[in-house]
Amino acid sequence: MSPATTIKDLPVYEYPKQTEAQLDWANLEALDISKLDQPGGKKALATQVLNFIDKNGFFYVTGHGFLNEQITRQYALAQEFFHLPLEEKTKYLANTAAGDFRGYKAKAAGANAGRDNDERYNIPKFTPEHERPHPQLILDHFEEIKDFSLHIHNKILLPLLRLFAYVLEIDEEYFVNRHRYDAEGLEYLRYMKYHPDPKDLWAIGHTDYNTLTFLFHQPVAGLQVQTKEGWRYVRSNPDSIIVNVADALEFLSGGYLKSTVHRVVRPPKDQAEKPRLSLIYFARPEAAIKLEPVRSPLLERLGLQKEIEEGLSSVTAEEWARARIAKDHRFRAGLVKTRETEIIAGVHQKYYD
What we know:
This is Fe2OG dioxygenase domain-containing protein. By secondary structure, the protein is of the alpha+beta class.
């Protein structure tokens, strides 16, 4: 199958109303990355990062270059995808048992329904290794989705990686050179739909296993971040992308950039009956990159320079991600009763209520 030349019109996507509930919101910093090209902008943003990054790995990005219409088009695509018949969607199932998230994951049914109430469709990088069948809906908008994904990688991810390298006082291309788009590696755009569910906890507290996660504006409340003061809701603002640091970047930065614990809870009463649609991009290091900490003058000066964990010395980014995906699959599919904490090579992962 190949991308179609004629694009079918999509219904216009309209955001749900913001909740009127009084919630405990997290106080997050916003990095305006458009300032990186301005005189003194990089230094000012680095100062911002130094002031918050050891306290919270969640932050906002503004000045990202996307128009609202480009984001709502992706939401329209996501909405249309989830409206497809189940028998059509299941033609493109992801092999999560083997640690592969490419394609579709249905919500759980039967005895396991209480563990998993979301649907997902993951669209990997637009490189030869990831050529695979897609529903016609996706093929009809293939170039549009590709442009959206490439903008995130090239115009948002890479500038942030250079900024973090600048903060750590290392070669500004150090992280960038471990995230080359054309190199083998599973980076992907996700369309996700949480279905209304009476239980309070929709996704248990966890960290992500990639580099950075980009979550686009969605007014249905439910995302929470673990702070020193406890769980706090993450407010979604129309002009911002919510970004969180994930496992791979914590490992690569020697623990300085912390993978942040977050969860999804049932929305407030005025939104509880609505599905929660999400548009997410998961940036990930190249498949063969070892998860060893960088040697950083900043970390040396602060006495925070870490050596690589013994178990991680032989683990690649792909092996870490595949192991976490496969362990997650085992729990969601009911193959194990509790989440497995040892991921690979003696390295453990914590889970939270």
